[in-house]
Write a structure and sequence with these properties.
It is built from 3 helices and 10 strands, in the order H-E-E-E-E-E-H-E-H-E-E-E-E. By secondary structure, the chain is α+β, with helices and mostly antiparallel strands. It has a single domain, classed as 60s Ribosomal Protein L30, Chain: A (2-Layer Sandwich), CATH 3.30.1330. Strand 6 (about 95-100), helix 3 and strand 7 (about 135-140) form a beta-alpha-beta unit. Helix 2 runs parallel beside helix 3. The model has no long low-confidence stretch (mean pLDDT about 90).
């Protein structure tokens, strides 16, 4: 267990990290947030992004400091870094997890809550960039922790009290 923890890079909320090979990327507390794992399978290089909000607006003073918290800008930035490190955009593939409906706000339909908006923004941006989503573990009403290994493309999804899922 200690060896495994030493070989894990923690991805903070609203941030992303890259890794190549067997070094895993991990992010916690994916409630309404979405974890976006993207990799180039030919070179085993990938990244994990912790999306907090759907779309960046330039007039958002809070967003300027951490633009990667947004699905649209965060995915673009992470893909750009993958390409700089040698990934081929035409080979990129994605897996996603999260977008849980953690909070019900009055009469707000489920399709309009932040989790649904985050998920729609992630799917839209990946489609615009022609990056296929190979697997998804989304929805429900429970938070997730994910571990991603770029070499194999394995995305392990942990949820308290539930069986671990492998994507």
């Amino acid at each position: 267990m200690v060896g495994e923890l030493q070989d894990v890079v923690v991805v903070g909320m609203g941030d992303y990290e890259l890794s190549q090979g067997t070094r895993q990327l991990m992010t916690r507390d994916l409630g309404s947030c979405v974890g976006v794992a993207i990799r180039d399978p030919h070179i085993g290089l990938g990244g994990l992004l912790h999306v907090m909000l759907p779309n960046y607006m330039q007039h958002d003073p809070l967003g300027a400091a951490q633009r990667t918290r947004y699905a649209d800008i965060g995915i673009e930035e992470m893909v750009g870094r993958l390409i700089i490190r040698g990934a081929d955009k035409t080979r990129l593939e994605a897996k996603i997890a999260g977008a849980a409906h953690m909070i019900k706000l009055g009469d707000t339909p489920e399709s309009r809550d932040i989790s649904s908006r985050n998920l729609a923004a992630v799917r839209k941006k990946l489609a615009e960039m022609h990056i296929p989503i190979l697997a998804a573990e989304v929805g429900g009403a429970y938070p997730r922790t994910v571990y991603y290994e770029p070499a194999s493309g394995l995305l392990r999804v942990h949820t308290s009290g539930m069986e671990e899922r492998m994507l």
